[in-house]
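Objective 1b: paired records.
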Amino acid sequence: MTPSADQPQMSVEEFEELARVAPETVTLEFINGKLGVKPVPDGDHATIIMWLVRQCMQQRPDLDLHPELELTVEAYRSGRARTDGALAPVGHFAGQQQWSAPEGVLMIVEVTSFDRDADARDRKEKPLAYAATGIPVYLLIDRDTDSLTVFSEPENGIYQQHPTYKYGDTVPLPAPVDITLATEKLKDYAH
């Protein structure tokens, strides 16, 4: 039987206990009832996140991009995602628990890793989980295709818009983010 939100591999509580005791070299997620292992970021991955942090701070100093934030996702908050970045108003996550609620998050960022699960995890499962949660924008920086996909307008659990741009393009992030990314620098990190 394939795990799903209706027939999960384990309960959310069991997942949280497993994630609590997992070694630092393992990053666990629980999306659509399935346990997933997310690779530890490499140097280019971390550098891309810092590139994005700087662009966000310059254009929207009223917002913080929180790297590696843990969020409850999916309907009824039955999923757990370790995001590469979560954009929210300054101070938004103060006082929240380890697995933060998604309300108030304006954008989620994921940067693909070079592993066999990236396609299912970052391109299929996470857009559905983030849209179901109502997060307005999901930015996927795809290192396999040297592109950025901007998912927006979540409706009925699906992002209605998802244009893709190549590294070097000017990338507009829609409201409520309202940031324009100059992506020429990403070419330096292409493989």
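Objective 1b, second protein:
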Amino acid sequence: MLNHPPTILLVDDEPVNITLLECLLRVEGYKTLSATSGIEALTIAETSIPDLIILDIMMPGMDGFAVCQKLREDSNLQTIPIIFLTALDDDYSKLRGLEVMGDDFLTKPFKNNLLLQKIANMLRLQEMRSQQVKQEIKEKTKRQFSAAWNINLALSEKLRLFVPDQFLHRIAPNGVESIQLGNSQEEEITVLFCDIRKFTTICEGQTPSETFQWLNVFFTEMNACIMANNGFIDKYLGDALMAVFDRPESHPQDAVNGALMMQQKIIEFNKGRDKYNLEEPINIGIGIHTGKGIIGALGADSRIDSTVIGDVVNTASRLQELTKHYSCGIIASDSVISQLTQSEYFEVRWIDRVVPRGKQQAQDIYEVCGKSTPPTNKPLMLT
């Protein structure tokens, strides 16, 4: 039922009729509003929105049928129950009342109990319909929310194909909606660059579709090696990739393990290279460096990208380039080698002390040759 006294609008051009109805209805606990013309009734209905209207038909200016028709055309008023209360008793008037969608038709003089019962039933039915509509809206909203939630989950999963979780929790700490230009964190990380040797020459002997096919397989294999060692790929650079390792206190070791696994995967990949129309085996060069970097959202207001900025990135890239000059597969900086833990035995070889291109300070660089069982008290072997 209504949680407030129902308001009934009384419309009749005879004030005495309105007075009689007011006395009858107020005793039953109803609130009343009154109008003596159709125009006045429409104005009051628009401003007060009554729960029910008792409407006379024969009125000067605008009769009750016209008033009812206007009410049914107003989206805010069209569902208000309307009882015609009139001296008219002919079939044409009753039919006209149905045509303009009146809810009931009573002829004067009327029986008080009959009018009161009709009012009570109509208000109760209106409340039931209102509750049903509310429930339908609630169910529809629930379905829409569920659909939106599923879409959001699907989009989030798709977003992870472009932006790894390790980036998201830094640039979107409060969910995807919180991503904004400048969100970032500075921390010590290890960056790995991997490049395919003689890629241009390889592409010359293939169609673009063939190159695209084996590149996707290649990157899938490399990504698996990186993820298996707690890293993530920051970006693909045509024939190269940049990966980040950020596990606290273990990222240099993770990066070296990842690089060695990548080399092993290349051997397996090359065994099946014929199906990709690759005449020569694929070779890669890997550079690894540890240092401070900023992981964040970079770009412009209308276009941002997740990335890593810092000297650690530039140095790792330069070390990868040096693998060509020194003819070796993996080159790591002294900052990487010095932090390798004693839990694993890496075979590394000092190569040179160099000033990488674009740098000013010299640093020792090492070739990572592989792993073996560590001898007692010799966790790291430098040759």
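The first strand starts at residue 7 and ends at 11. The two ends are 90 Å apart (CA to CA).
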